[in-house]
Amino acid sequence: MDFGTKIKELRKQNGLTQQQLASRIGVTKSVISFYELKERAPSPDTLVKLAQVFHVSTDYLLDVQKSRTVDVSGLSDEDIRAVQMIVERLRKKHNSARRE
Question: What does DSSP assign to residue 58?
Answer without folding.
Answer: H
